[in-house]
Write a structure and sequence with these properties.
It contains 14 helices and no strands. By secondary structure, the chain is an all-alpha fold. The two termini are 28 Å apart.
Length: 248
């Protein structure tokens, strides 16, 4: 998936057709996943992923920095992840990061600040930063990102992907699955990759299906939606993924 997204055959233009593959593969991953991905990539393609990614995105500085930061695999802790004695100092640090993000939206938006904070914070730390931002600046971090980074749409969408994953990952993934089937024509490749990724964690898959029912009650269920939007062997494969948690 990563190789397809950044190979020489893929043209990164104004449509940013394959950045969703990079976000699905690299953003919001569990500890250890990134190193495993880098090792597997080198074994399969005989090349190091980081410089290859940098070259592929050389004209897209913000996106390049976002994904390269993710590959560096830093994960600074949140308040729930440190001893009690360290919490006051960390709280001050988190408040400063929330303030720095707000400052970065004044005038010319400093996108690289967002790229660094969003990809080097653990899920718990980013949750703490979001809460601090809301408390100190009376607005959600997601709403500010959506409003202030309109001119960098692809980069903005990746930041929102991260934030919405922290807020409610099953709901985010359910909405993204629906988006692959919404409108005229199914985006088969994206639907397949998103469903495969969700199915790796059976507990998460169940949560995604439950979130889908709540978010799109008129669709009935994710399984019914896929039955109505796909056909043939592809449909059989997708249905097998959907019920792989042993729940319809």
């Amino acid at each position: 998936m990563i190789h397809r997204a950044i190979s020489d055959k893929v043209k990164f233009g104004t449509s940013f057709k394959y950045t969703w593959m990079l976000s699905l593969a690299l953003l919001g991953r569990k500890d250890g996943d990134i190193e495993a991905i880098k090792d597997s990539y080198k074994r399969m393609f005989g090349d190091t992923l980081l410089p290859f990614l940098k070259e592929a995105l050389k004209k897209e500085t913000l996106l390049a920095n976002l994904f390269m930061n993710a590959l560096e695999n830093h994960s600074f802790p949140g308040l729930s992840e440190v001893p009690e004695a360290n919490k006051k100092a960390l709280e001050d640090e988190i408040n400063k990061e929330a303030d720095d993000l707000f400052t970065a939206t004044v005038g010319n938006v400093e996108g690289n600040k967002f790229a660094w904070v969003f990809t080097t914070s653990s899920q718990e730390r980013l949750k703490d930063i979001m809460a601090a931002f809301n408390t100190r600046h009376k607005q959600s971090l997601a709403s500010v990102v959506e409003k202030k980074l309109k001119k960098t749409e692809a980069f903005r969408d990746e930041l929102l992907y991260i934030l919405r994953g922290v807020e409610d990952r099953p709901k985010r993934d359910a909405e993204l699955l629906e988006n692959t089937m919404k409108g005229i024509g199914t985006r088969d490749t994206q639907l397949t990759f998103r469903l495969i990724t969700a199915s790796w964690d059976k507990e998460h898959l169940t949560k995604v299906k439950d979130a889908y029912k709540r978010r799109f009650p008129t669709r009935g269920s994710l399984l019914l939606r896929i039955e109505g939007d796909t056909s043939g062997e592809h449909q059989k494969f997708l249905k097998a993924l959907v019920i792989s948690d042993a729940k319809k």
